[in-house]
Write a structure and sequence with these properties.
Pfam families: Rieske (PF00355). By secondary structure, the chain is mainly beta. About 0% of the residues lie in helices and about 40% in strands. The structure holds FE2/S2 (inorganic) cluster.
Length: about 120
């Protein structure tokens, strides 16, 4: 496993199906907005860019989940994403996916492992 690259947040900052934490990630495409949420007990991180139109998903800062805390949802046109794979399961970009980022939870904190662009 790659060494943790950068601290994102404390583990306690992420409740299951709750608000996410925004951060930025350097990629070969430049610095991009990103976010991490907790789902099925694990931190799940993605570039904060809808697969439909490259806008940020959250309608207010940190609000990435639908009302049930089951899917990630884009506030602009309602694209709905699987929080594990990032695949769009409903909406205008069905079949596309969010760009997943590798994170790890160590010592009560969530760390970015690195972005490959
Ligand atoms: S921009 Fe996200 S669904 Fe259209």
């Amino acid at each position: 496993m790659a060494a943790p690259e950068r601290l994102i947040c404390a583990s306690d900052d992420l409740a299951e199906g709750g608000d996410g934490v925004r951060f930025e990630v350097d990629t070969t495409s430049g610095r991009l907005p990103a976010f991490v949420v907790r789902f099925e007990g694990q931190p799940r991180a993605f570039v904060n860019q809808c697969a439909h139109v490259p806008v940020e998903l959250d309608w207010q800062e940190g609000a990435f989940f639908d009302a049930d805390g089951r899917y990630l949802i884009c506030a602009t046109h309602g694209a709905t994403y699987d929080p594990v794979s990032g695949a769009c399961v409903f909406g205008p970009c069905r079949g596309a996916a969010l760009k997943k980022l590798a994170v790890v939870e160590v010592d009560a904190a969530v760390w970015l492992l690195g972005a490959d662009g």
